[in-house]
Write a structure and sequence with these properties.
The protein is α/β, with parallel strands linked by helices. It has two domains: 116 residues, Rossmann fold (3-Layer(aba) Sandwich), CATH 3.40.50; 61 residues, Arc Repressor Mutant, subunit A (Orthogonal Bundle). 58% of the residues lie in helices and 12% in strands. The chain is built from seven helices and five strands. A five-stranded parallel beta sheet has the order 2-1-3-4-5, with helices on both faces. Helix 3 links the parallel strand 3 and strand 4. It is elongated. It comes from Caldimonas thermodepolymerans. This is Response regulator. InterPro entries: ANTAR, CheY-like_superfamily, Sig_transdc_resp-reg_antiterm, WH-like_DNA-bd_sf. GO terms for molecular function: RNA binding.
Length: 212
């Protein structure tokens, strides 16, 4: 499958709710300025920002409705709560997640990556940095998904092989046939029923477990 250009992605930003905080709140002012710079950088890069959402309990439902291709987390200094909402929202529908933060405490980077964050960027909101960061995030996510699919395929093949071996053993014992003959019995049954050999093997094992 050809790589997807990052600039064609539908992006959702998870960010603080306001860009106009109370002027007396210095920290909120910094966060708003960072968030503003991020949005400007995305727009200048031609990205399709389909929504800006707060990190609240409704986030999973909103993301399920929008179905974005990438999620950008514009995190305040304490990103833990934000990440928890995003992780819940993407647990069953994985997407590349890029987290931008000004928090230079990297002690929770490992947990963030383990939770599904694709790229974790500290103090990286200069507009000219955004495109390469998103390109890397997308490439990394696609690579990890390919590995994940390959691992799942390998696990399925291994499980299938175990089922077939066990089913062959049952047939060999019951009918006094050799291994090849047992396999041919399974293969013929699979062809006749339009099933995979592993599925026939599982059914045979289930029956054998019942009748003993």
């Amino acid at each position: 499958m050809a790589p997807t250009p990052a600039s064609s992605l539908r992006i959702v930003i998870v960010a603080p709710e306001t860009l106009n905080p109370d002027p007396s709140d210095v920290e909120a002012g910094w966060e708003a300025e960072r968030s503003r710079s991020l949005r400007i950088g995305l727009l200048q890069g031609g990205y399709d920002v389909v929504a800006v959402l707060p990190a609240d309990v409704f986030l999973p439902d909103r993301l399920a409705q929008i179905q974005p291709d990438m999620i950008i987390v514009d995190a305040e200094s304490q990103a833990r709560d934000t990440l928890e909402h995003v992780v819940v929202a993407t647990r069953d529908a994985r997407r590349p997640i890029v987290l931008f933060t000004d928090d230079d405490d990297t002690s929770h980077v490992k947990d963030a990556i383990a939770a599904g964050v694709t790229v974790y960027v500290v103090a990286g909101l200069a507009p000219e940095r955004i495109k390469p960061v998103l390109d890397v995030a997308l490439a990394r996510f696609q690579h990890e998904e390919a590995l994940r699919r390959e691992l799942a395929k390998t696990r399925t093949q291994l499980q299938d092989r175990k089922l077939v071996e066990r089913a062959k053993g049952i047939l060999m014992k019951r009918y006094g046939c050799d291994e090849q003959q047992a396999y041919e019995r399974l293969r013929k049954a699979a062809m006749d029923k339009g099933l995979r050999i592993a599925e026939v093997a599982q059914r045979l094992i289930d029956v054998a477990d019942v009748i003993g």
